[in-house]
Write a structure and sequence with these properties.
Elements lengths: L1 H16 L5 H60 L9 H4 L2 E4 L4 E8 L4 E2 L4 E4 L2 E4 L1 H13 L4 H15 L12 H5 L31 H4 L3 E2 L9 E2 L8 H8 L4 H9 L10 H4 L13 E2 L4 E9 L4 E10 L5 E9 L1
Parallel strand pairs: 3-6, 7-8
Antiparallel strand pairs: 1-2, 2-9, 4-5, 9-10, 10-11
Helix pairs in contact: 1-2, 4-5, 4-8, 8-9
The structure holds calcium ion (CA).
Length: 334
Amino acid sequence: MIKHLLGLFTQILKLFMTRPGVILITTLLIVMVMSVISMQISKNFYISLNREAYLDFKNLSYQLLISSEKQAIRSIQKEMQAFESKLTLNDPILKNKLYYQSDLMVLELAVSDASNCFNLNSLFKPSKNSYTVRPIYKEWLSRYLRLKLINEAEIDSFIDQLIDWVDQDNQPLNSGAENYFYIGPGSSVKQFTPKRLLVDLSEIQNFPIMQALNFKDLTSHLCILPDSNRQLININSLVESDAFLLASFFNEKNLEYVQSQILTMPKNGYDEINSFVDKFDQSGDFPSQVLSINSKTFKLEGEIITENFTANLDTLVILDISNLAVILRRDFNF
Ligand SMILES: [Ca+2]
């Protein structure tokens, strides 16, 4: 483009310089052409400068995200060791944000307790090369779905389809769906059932029953710990909206009662679970080992904001019995 403009300019110049009284017009033309050229140059320069700045930001922020994640996990481990007995929402690790800094940027990181949801993988127990269904967790899930006002036929379909998605055999359960349903003409999945624990909650969208159910409402208290069947409820970090989860756990139909028990929790949390369990009718069959006064799973959410760019970190981490950390999921976004 610049070459073309210069050619045009030379031709005009030749034409006009041979005639008198056109110096002013010629000068104006020169100024015009020069400004077009300079605009073009600065536009290209600006784009390449911006691209370089973005790449620099991406590299630097990635380093900061990685190192901050590591430091935050170390802080959690330290805190959990120090306060092994209980973890309440007033604990500094949950209450205060963490800040990590490099030369050019600051990362703000929030840690939350990721315990209080029903892990759909908790339904399954690995056995030999397969999975068996844990009836006590299946019952809990049924109670949860019933509280969500889902009818019995739909509950059977949801649970059977979940089991078929994970189990190793190719035989569909009564209301289930196996391989040939998913590769059939009516399905967009086009693959066999994965035959493993779930890695993401969105996987359940593939189940045929989900066409009749509302994903957002159904999953408000559900979660997936990728490849893990661990399940805890930290009674010291419950909030009012967890009443649903707790009510389904205890088979308590009076949601307001459950809410009031959460709201009247001792200020410094419970030191043991029995005084909490005693508040509920214990005729139901619930997995009491699920209740805990601290937590093992944590969500880390970090954000770097600069004038021009942002970067985010979203990590799910679980501590094992030796307090060692395993990262279950990690998302970095730039
Ligand atoms: Ca099956």
